[in-house]
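task queued by scheduler; priority normal; single chain, no ligands, no partner chains; default sampling; output format set to structure tokens
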Amino acid sequence: MTERYAAVVVGGGTAGLSAALVLGRARHRTLVVDAGEPRNAPAAHMQGYLSRDGMPPAEFLAVGREEIARYGVELVRDRVVEVERGENFAVVLAGGRTVRARRLVIATGLKDELPAVPGVAERFGRDVLHCPFCHGWEVRDQPFGVLASSPASVHQALIVSQWSKDVRFFLHTVAEEELSDQDLRRLAAAGVDVVPGEVAGLVVEDDRLTGVRLADRTTHARSMLFVGPRPVPQTGLLERLGAELQETPFGAYPVVDPTGLTTVPGVWAAGNAIGFAEQVVHAASGGYRAAAAIVGDLLMTDLDAAVQE
């Protein structure tokens, strides 16, 4: 027989676990389907989350899984491959299981597509970074490099200059003529050196980044390199459900109301599934809001049905 749940949460990261915690505490039978691919897996620590600053992401998620289990929430390591709309949602898992849910929370996040520079992917999350708010304090005052992926990378170079006064902005495949006069003036005012030329690779010694090598074989001594990954939203399920998406400079994300409700009745989204800039603390809040809205929605639906009867 098909198992029935009040809610199925797709994604067991911060947003998904936060939603599941609220749903479980509200006494709703809830299932979390987790593929085990959190965006921040390469990072050794997470920062900026009050009371959890510096906590390893894996430990944070492990604590979250323990907490939801106290309230009877089920968690399976699997992947949702299809969702069918009907009176309830039929959720098909890769492992062959099919369950039904009255409401859905999509917390599938996004993937970071890194620049195709040799060595970048191997060192991502260590001394190749993308978020100064996540890692800036820990690497402060070191020689920074910033790898341009578009003229918009100027913003990243300016932001990281708050954590180091030794910053070199490698234009890579961006021509200097593509930068505006205002960009160049701001970079100069921030003390950021602009380095033209394509980056060919990284210099690594004793498992530490020591430099950035250009195609002309010149090397710049750097101990940290900031890059701008291309975010790839994991919106496949939302698209198949018919959710409306909106284009942004960082990809297409679902149109949602303040609680995370998408344009598909009964389907909420939270975390990086709704935007590129959702940090861990935002994801936790978004999952909470979505779950609280679902609790109220289910209550009113059931009460209205009782009144009609």
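post-processing summary
- The helical segments are 14-25, 57-69, 120-123, 132-135, 153-160, 181-189, 236-241, 280-308.
- The two ends are 27 Å apart (CA to CA).
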